[in-house]
Amino acid sequence: MLLDLSEEHKEHLAFLPQVDSSVVAEFGRIAVEFLRRGSNPKIYDGAARKLNVSRDTVQHGVEGLTYLLTESSKLMISELDFQDSIFVLGFSEELNKLLLQLYLDNRKEIRTILSELAPDFPSYHSLEWRLDVQLASRSLRQQIKPSVTIKLHLNQNGDRNTQVLQTDPATLLHLVQQLEQALEEMKTNHCRRVVRNIK
Amino acid sequence: MEGSSEPLLDAKTKVTNQLVDFQWKLGMAVSSDSCRSLKYPYVAVMLKVADQSGQVKSKSFEMTIPQFQNFYRQFKEIAAIIETV
User: What's this protein's family per the entry (chain B) (predicted)?
Assistant: First the structure.
């Protein structure tokens, strides 16, 4: 699968052949560091002064390189497809090799970072329960009604959420049965086949 | 009263929320995940409150018996003061 680079993107990347390959390697390092920890615009000012170009030129160059790396990593394109995709930029063979190496060296880490951008559903953290007996209410006195109170602790986006739920023992048993049935599904032939193929 | 910020205690207007329902129950916790044998009585209250747009929200909370007795004392005091108004 080839990358389709927009005209604007190609313009931004056109800065790269105008500098030393050591500078391109440094830009690559900065790009990955920005992906890890967020961008730090002060770096652009320093680099612009040293290279004697405008700050925008440096920023676009680094951002263009970042986008090239993230798109390639996102799609997991092959070495050959990467080389063919950047061929249209008309860079020197040395620069092409450098870019390919940047891609291959950082692909795995970039994919790990990108995987964290998927939407985060609330997930299970822990569960507390309590067995209660209701003795009276506003509408009825002299009762003996068992119920289960559950405090469900969930994680979402790093925060903790708590839900308090209440049910009677019969419904709880039904709930447990349903969950056991769901687990049983993992043992069916169909699920086994899917899991084997994913591995 | 110019510039006063006292809420008008007229249940028809200007009170931000209205109490729609007050349900309660008395229960006894007999077992939990952290303690297998309990004898813990409590009062659980569920309030239904309507805001100015009419939307009803539920809020529930529990009280231990001492907490409930304190709660009850507040209302006894309010009732006593109303008698004198």
Answer: Belongs to the COMM domain-containing protein 6 family.
- Report the alpha-carbon distance of residue B46 to residue B50 in Å, rounded: 13
Q: pTM for the full model?
A: 0.59
B14 Rama sector, left if φ>0, alpha if ψ -120 to 50, beta otherwise: left
**Domains, chain B:** 18-84 (3.10.450)
Q: Which residues on chain B are in Cβ contact (under 8 Å) with A164?
A: 60
Give whole-number Cα distances, B5 to A140, A172, B1, B17, in Å.
42, 50, 9, 17
- Assess: ipTM above 0.85: no
Q: Closest partner residue to A137 among B25, B31, B41, by Cβ?
A: B25
pLDDT digits (tens, 9 = 90+) for B20-65: 999 999 999 999 999 999 999 999 999 999 988 889 999 999 999 9
Contacts of B26 in chain A (CB under 8 A): 134-137
A170-183 tens-digit pLDDT:
999 999 999 999 99
Q: What average pLDDT score do residues A145-169 get?
A: 91
Query: First and final CA of chain A: distance in angstroms?
Result: 24
CB contact under 8 A, B32 and A129: yes
pLDDT of residue B1: 47
Distance CA A10, CA A8 (A): 5
Question: Any CB–CB contact under 8 A between A151 and chain B?
Answer: no
Residue A119, amino acid: P
Q: Is the CA virtual torsion A6, A11, A12, A16 positive or negative?
A: positive
